[in-house]
Amino acid sequence: MLQGIKLNSSLEEEFSGSRYFGILSNIRKINTFVGVNNSGKSRFLRTLFSQSKGTKFIYEIDEETILNILNQTKEIIRIIDSLKAYGIKYKYWNSLNSLSETIEKNEVDVLNNILDIYWYLSTLDVHEFELTQNQYENHLRGTISQTKSYVTNLGNLINKLGKDNNKIEKIYIPILRGLRPIAQSEDSFSTDDIYLNRTKHDYFQAEIPNGLIFTGLSIYERVKRLLLGDESERNEIKEFEIFLESNLFKKKITLIPKYDDDVLHIKIGNETQFPVHKLGDGLQTLIIILFPIFINRSKSHLVFIEEPETHLHPKWQRLLYRAMCNIENHTYFISTHSSVFINSPSNSIFIVSKKNKKINLHYSDVKTEKVQILKELGYKPNDLYQTNFLLWVEGQSDKIYLNYLIQKVDNTLIEGEDYSIMFYGGSSYKHFLMNKGDLNLDFIESLNQNYALIMDSDRSKSGERYNPKKKEIVNLFKKNKSYCWLTKLREIENYIPIEVFKESVKTIHKVKNIQLDSSQFGDRCKYIDLNSKPTYKPSIKLSNELFSKIQKNKNGSLKGIMAPELRKEIEKSLNNTKQTINTIDKIKVAEKIVNTGFEMENDELNKKIIALVKDIKKAND
Fold first, then answer.
1. E strand segments, 509-596
2. Full 3-state SS string of 462-513
3. In 265-424, at which residue ranges do the beta strands (DSSP E only) sit?
4. Looking at 162-285, which runs of residues are DSSP E strands?
5. 325 near 30, Cβ under 8 Å?
6. Mind listing the pLDDT tens digit for each residue in 448-485?
7. Phi and psi for 507 in degrees, rounded to 5?
8. Rg of the Cα trace of the chain?
9. Which residues lie below 8 Å from residue 389, measured CB to CB, with a gap of 6+?
10. Which one of 3.30.420, 2.60.40, 3.30.460, 3.40.50 gives the CATH number of domain 4-59+167-351?
11. What 8-state DSSP symbol labels residue 268?
12. Would you tell me how many other CB atoms lie within 10 Å of the CB of residue 365?
């Protein structure tokens, strides 16, 4: 089973990636490359197809190599562990230790775990440690320096992984493909494969060892040659016809290279045979793609396909996907914009984008429990991958406000094209930012390399401290030079002019006179209808002052509390029940507010939205 591909070192000038050491890991049977147009998807596929010399293919890693890697890793872990005696704690200790144990047990994804360990160790820095006493900082720096030689040895072992494999069989199916000869010569059409000639001229002028480029134009001659061959060759066509019947047509299929024609003919069930070009373009596409990978099924191939969804209805795309999976030996590499291929749970998804004038590759695992949470929120993988910028907000009303604010700063930006906004559901942000007990951006980065996060502070007054975990998240984003806004005010609603907010609540809830907390840190999601008739309730709430007196008794008694004081407290609490506190419909109110429109009067809001728009435009540039 192919685990990874080690690219020729010269290609590192063209390609980059998170935790990237020139190795493409997380390889599965079908590997999908997604990204906007001109991001470099097809170029990377052609590079993999043509760069066999100097490129290593990593299959199973032998036990001796794993043992050597493990020994180097354990030595570094031992050195880091010695810092505990000085009160110095490594923030990512749990993740590092877990990865080491996983490799020792020789569990699945060994290559990926090795690369993760190397990333942690090769990027060791002082800020990744917690010091209880600053006097030991120099000792920490010395210890980090001590690990460098071991990290270098570990890197050398990783660099030797895999083997040169110029003999590996490869198939490339370009975007330029078809079943009908199109080059006309006098009154007939030339059988010359001009798609192949053009593809070679543009992309593959050098010879590709064991590389088949199949455009479909040669299918007439290929089928004819096999039908005129020996029994095993003739049987190949019969097997392919059965394969088409069971996977696509659900009827008996016969392929016929008619002697007085230049295109393949086909007979479906009891119908009269006809030229294959009378089939829909979708069925022709399926035959073009499936023919070379089926005929070569007896031997493992790397199969590279450019945008297999071209001309295919989503139903046919699903048929193609299943048919490809039914051919066991091959490993597929696909560039696509198709939601069918992106949303398939058994794929490996690689996000391709332009970054610092390089083609940036980033693996995203669609099988994690975190993606399952996103699915429960109503998102599909293609919603997340096929966007240039991903903005995370707390709820659906925040998404409504942020879309309005972004448009207000730059109305040329379009959601779904230039950026996407997704809500993470309040405190569930922890699901997306926690990994093995550590706070990190692995999952968010796996979805998109350009991202931002907005969090409500939920503070009830100006001097109140921020939630420590939220502050830690802000620092994490800052470390990764990514946008993160933790609001100073309670939540996004508090940045909207109070009169605009109040009028929208009155309109949506059909009330004329309301009491609303208008302070900067007030909860605007609650209101009191001042015109409603008083309806006293049996449940009352004691004031904190009175309750603290009761608490001092430690037995729940009213000892020391005078009857007039208690009577006054009950009357006051009972009187408060006559005003019913209502909860606003946040989404409908938000929609009303943005339809009415409002000005960005708050300086913090103005600066933060302008900075956000700048990041979105940078990602799109």
1. 514-516, 526-529, 581-583
2. CCCCCCHHHHHHHHHHHHCCCEEEECCCCCHHHHCCHHHHHHHHHHHHCCCC
3. 265-268, 274-275, 301-306, 331-335, 348-355, 358-364, 390-393, 420-423
4. 163-164, 169-173, 184-185, 188-189, 211-213, 253-256, 265-268, 274-275
5. yes
6. 678 899 999 999 888 889 988 888 888 888 878 889 99
7. -70, -50
8. 32
9. 418, 419, 420, 448, 450, 451, 452, 615, 616, 619, 620
10. 3.40.50
11. E
12. 17
In the chain, the amino acid numbered 113 is N
| Torsions phi, psi for 464 (to 5 deg) | -70, 140
Cα 420 from Cα 439, distance rounded (Å) = 24
Q: How far is CA 469 from the centre of its chain?
A: 24
Which CATH number does 376-491+599-620 carry?
A: 3.40.50
Strand partners, 604: none
| Cα angle, residue 49 at apex, residues 47 and 52 outer, rounded to 5° | 90
Lowest mean pLDDT among 14-23, 63-72, 288-297, 389-398: 14-23
> Residue 24 in 3-state DSSP?
strand
Give the span between the Cα atoms of 514 and 535, in whole angstroms: 17
Identify the DSSP state of 251. S
Structure tokens at 583: 């909860």
- Nearest-CA neighbor of 302 among 597, 604, 590, 29? 29
* pLDDT value of residue 606: 94
Tokens matching residue 280? 């829909």
CB count within 10 Å of CB 353 equals 22
Among the listed residues 108, 132, 110, 128, the one whose alpha carbon sits nearest the alpha carbon of residue 120: 128
Q: 246 with 253: CB under 8 angstroms?
A: no
Sign of CA dihedral 240, 243, 249, 254: positive
Tokens, residue 558: 């009213």
pLDDT of residue 504: 92
pLDDT in tens, 90-138: 888 888 888 888 887 766 678 888 888 888 888 888 888 888 888 888 8
β pairing state of 390-393 and 420-423: parallel
- Distance from chain centroid for Cα 236: 41
Query: By C-alpha distance, which of 476, 398, 467, 415 is closest to 443?
Result: 476
Mean pLDDT, rounded, of the chain: 83
Which amino acid belongs to residue 412?
T
Two structure tokens written together for 363: 């693996």
| Position 307, amino acid | E
Q: Do the first three CATH levels of 4-59+167-351 and 376-491+599-620 match, i.e. the same topology?
A: yes
CA-nearest of 488, 495, 481 to 458 is 488
- Single out the residue of 328, 285, 329, 291 nearest to residue 308, CA to CA: 285
**150: which residues sit within 8 A by CB, 6+ positions away?**
72, 75, 76, 79, 121
The domain spans of the chain are 4-59+167-351, 63-161, 376-491+599-620, 498-583
Rounded distance between C-alpha atoms, residue 263 and residue 233, angstroms:
20
**Could you tell me the two tokens for 417?**
């094209």
Number of H helices, E strands in the chain: 22, 28
